[in-house]
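From the shared-data thread, chain only:
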Amino acid sequence: MAEVIRMPLLSDTMKEGVIAEWHKKVGDSVKSDDVLADVETDKATMEVMPFVSGTLLYIGVEKGKAAKVNDIIAIIGKPGEDYQSLLQSAPAAAPAGNEPAAAPAPAPATAPAAPQAEAPKAAAPAEIPAGVTVVRMPLLSDTMTEGKIVTWNKKEGDVVKSDDVLAEVETDKATMEVMGYADGTLLHIGVPAGSAAKVNDIIAIVGKPGTDISGILNAPAPAAANTAPTNPAPAAAASPATAPATTPQAAAPSAQDGDDRIKISPLARKIAQDKGIDLRALHGSGDGGRIVKRDLDNYRPQQAAATAPAAATGTAAATVSVAGQESFTDTPLSQMRKVIAKRLSESMYTAPHFYLKISVIMDKAMEARKQINDLGGQKVSFNDFIIKACAMALRKHPEVNSSWMGDFIRANHHISIGSAIAVEEGLIVPVIKFADQLSLTQIASSASVLYDKARNKKLQPQEFSGNTFTISNLGMMGIDEFTAIINPPDSCILAVGNIVPTPVVENNNVVVRQILKLTLSCDHRVVDGAVGARFLQTLKTYIENPVTMLA
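Structure, as tokens:
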């Protein structure tokens, strides 16, 4: 049976999307994970995947034209299949249709719709009762295979609105608020809090009270019909289960009088209502003084605050090890830690690593940095210098900017550099896009914003994906040198150590120079030793002579 692909709902403010480019034409064979089209929204340009396989029978919106959310943009089926009945019976745009909505590819999306699996005959639209909406686990990043339900904000039997936050989901990258985008009663919760669900698994069903949903639950495969395009928004902060609470900023603006005038996230408002907390007593630590979940987590009435030290002392005493007695604490893996373990293990044991080391004299770079920072404005770090120098060197050595794709090597014509940063839950890699086209101060500004977002778990998917080269810097922690594991699909990663005063011999004289040690990890399937060595030589030249990066 032919499948209708609709314009997905990609953000809470999106009304329509413009087809920026079609990557397939009528008659082309399409796989479920092919990029069907690029869609420009009010937030960003995103790649749309159909999540069904077959032949592209129909394109409903020309390149450059707009389609409203839930309008038909394409139909996929068997070659020669009659699809006219689908067009004639197509309903007007609605929150959820009888066919699967197109889902955006995870890498560049700001807030992807839930991916839809190909519907088997047992889960045909006719078997789903009218007015029932299935909410599935959305695909939120290119590395996500499952999401963990941190908490449910609604329980079975509750009346829900389309903009209510149903649950908080922990992924490998962030904690996200998931909305169902359907009005009705919460008939079924498919995954209890604390448990994980694979992408596209049913996590909830919304409909009219008393509706028989046994046919949906007993279906042998995930149903594609009447599935709500869940549109998650990044949660304001990590959940208490995954990160310790932090003290709100002292300078955060206080909430204003009147509920309607207070800036607050839907999740934070719900928690405040449940706990009976006066919003005017809170100080928002989010953007523009917005009250977010962590502000509720950190809130303590005066009485509770007075007794907190005693409680903390008691807790600490309970965890002290007894002399001569073995003890341990088991910590459940977060989604981020699971993905770090999986991806880096795969990289280490599938990509044949080899390592190249070089020492760089940083005296001129240190002088240049001081002069730039003395001018005022955006401060520049040594890491910013290295990002800029790597981008310039990658221009001259495109082989290092390539990716291993299994049965072919992809030469990337753009340069986007990931800069690894440690967060409470593990490691994340914000990406400075088109770094070779940015000035040093532009790189510094972009990196500063991305690092701040990463620490506050506010990174959007397009901000931590799409890297073509990665840098890992432990120099600020006093590490002289180390080797890093390649971050797929990159073919190389640069490990940056500490700058150390070191005696060196120049013109038969011993002088002290500021030495930085760099280690390049290379995937030998893509990059040979000589290629990596030439890249490091060029990189060394740029860093030791910063003025050359202005050419």
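The first strand starts at residue 3 and ends at 6.
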